Amino acid sequence: MKHLVIVRGGGELGTAVAHRLHRVGYKVLILEKSRPSALRRELAFSDAVYDGEKTVERVTCICAENLKTALALTAAGRVTMLVDPTGRYVRKFPPHILVNTLDGREDESKRELPADFRIGLGAGYCAMEDVNCVVDTIRSYSLGSIIYNGRCRVRRTAEDTIADGGFLRAPTEGMIKSPHTISHIFRADETVAEIYDDRGQTVPVVTPIDGVLRGIIHDNYRVTADMAVAEIDPRINPAHCSLISDKARCISGSVLEAIMAFENGGRP
What we know:
Elements: E1 4-8, H1 12-23, E2 27-32, H2 48-51, E3 53-56, E4 59-63, H3 67-75, E5 79-83, E6 96-100, E7 117-121, E8 133-135, E9 146-147, H4 158-163, E10 166-169, E11 174-177, E12 185-186, E13 191-196, E14 202-206, E15 211-216, E16 222-223, E17 228-233, H5 246-263
Helix pairs in contact: 1-5
């Protein structure tokens, strides 16, 4: 019998995991914070927090207003989101599998939340300590590897850097606004967004390269200095902005493999 899967984090990776699991018949609940900061918003179910629902590649996630609604939507097989950054509602759901897509280095509750089976994404989690297994998230020959003892190594390649595009960082603290939508094409030295600081000054966020706007944080989000606020993809293909990436698909496939192995009596 398939378990309910609770995914912590509705960004790009969490969305890819939820999308794949829903497509093969799992019931999926996503836990998100009240003001998500995902940049690749066309690929992130986390936008449902702002708009009530979000569709990615023909699958729609609905943000529930409360726990009762979330239970009903999940039982009906809808991809459901609930604002719950600390996981306090996890104990309210039936036996489940927990997939952690948060930064494991900052996830203080990673060892505390109950689950039949825990999966962590990335080097911030340690199998046999925090979770039952870890999925490698760095682009390399080991991308998507399932680790049942220890951590995946932290490493980045030139290919990973190119695929991740160019992240633009906030030059100062303040409220961000941009008139541009995701998939807009920019030339080098053009202004992508503006930050209104506490002194009433406007500071531009400028792209140093040509590219397509692959992601940008929501308007009126309060950013901190040096925070990633937008992403420019130098491959300049607007279609990429609304498609789950090859990397995210690989990782979501590994999560599905780990879950199926657990449910079929394989590795713990």
